[in-house]
Specification:
- It is a single chain.
- By secondary structure, the chain is of the alpha+beta class.
- It has a domain of about 110 residues.
- Helices cover about 25% and strands about 35% of the residues.
- It is built from nine helices and 24 strands.
- It has a six-stranded mixed β-sheet. Strands 16, 17, 18, 21, 22 and 23 form a six-stranded mixed β-sheet that branches. Strands 3-2-1-4-5 form a five-stranded mixed β-sheet, sandwiched between helices.
- Helix 5 runs antiparallel to helix 8.
- The longest helix is centred in the middle third of the chain and has 22 residues.
Amino acid sequence: MSKPVAECGALWTRILPPGAAAPIEYPTPHGSVAAVLAERLAGAGVPAGPLAIVVPDRWLDGDRRGVVQHESFRQELAPFPDLTWYGRSPAVAALAARDHGAGVYLVCDLGWSGASLGLCRVDGPMIELLAGEFEPRAGGGAYAQAVTAGLPDQVRRRFAGVQAAKAARARAVLSRASDGYLDDPVYIIDGVEFSAGLLIERFGPLAELLGERIRSLGWSYDRLVVSGGFGEFPLVERALPGPALRLGPDASVRGAELLERGTFAMARPGRVDVRLPVHRVANGLLETAEVELVPGPGNFAFLGREPLLVSRAGDGPGIVLRAADGRVPLTVGGAPGTIPVRNDVACRIGLRSTVNGSALLLFSPLIADAEPTLVPLDDWEPA
């Protein structure tokens, strides 16, 4: 049985329960994300349990900031016992491929926080993220800031909601915008009019930025796909290098449902054989082991049921690997060596894969609210 699928965006959260025709949508809460998710699922007759989550590509492909953000979000969702993670671009590509078949898709997911660009190859049921980029200056938030600059805070806060509610009017007015209609109001917020001319003028720099960013990547693709809430804004097509397939703001959860059902599968980045050598005395006997680090969100090193920790001081619960000289033993591809440890407190250790570079070791402190540290596998030195 497939799990419910959820995506917690900067502005909106969408949940697609199994068998539902359309997702549940509500404003993303600033706190208690897990509690609100559970409440909404219960309201749809789905008990809290296994859950599939759609997250930005950069959270899964080894982007330094993305890995840290993902780890923090994973901890927020700790009440859910079984989480499956899907990248946004592969999920959108799955939805596009359902109707348009195999090929290379350029997914342009435009949300409030920016433009996420993902190049995905669909070959049969397998979807591979070939490359990904993120442009924070080309999202709905950046555009709203440009349009509402200098206006009262209340108007600025309401702009995103009014823009979403008046999407049909924006399409109608902006589609006929010309010299004779540029003064027509598209939105009115607390008496402040936003004319077609103003919206077009303020969109110009963003369109130029996004178009240039896409062209500069030099990616070859068969079809351009647009998704995300800001992707519905009528002027977006002016920024794109060619015709695009628009899939709507809920494309990622609908596509992730196809991944969850097994219609498509998300290929994982190439795996490197990385192991932690362990030498300890247990029950009066010397015990040696090599613990494989399996890449993936929430995966950390364990020996049996005991967590493996790294600490410069050599203390902490579980089995502690002491890094008194600032380095810890690590075997890569069967070759012994060491990797630097930059935390002063006891940490769990995990491996995170990347699309565009070296794999990363994640050192996650046991102390609450302490910042995780990422060390590229390129920093490994042979013994």
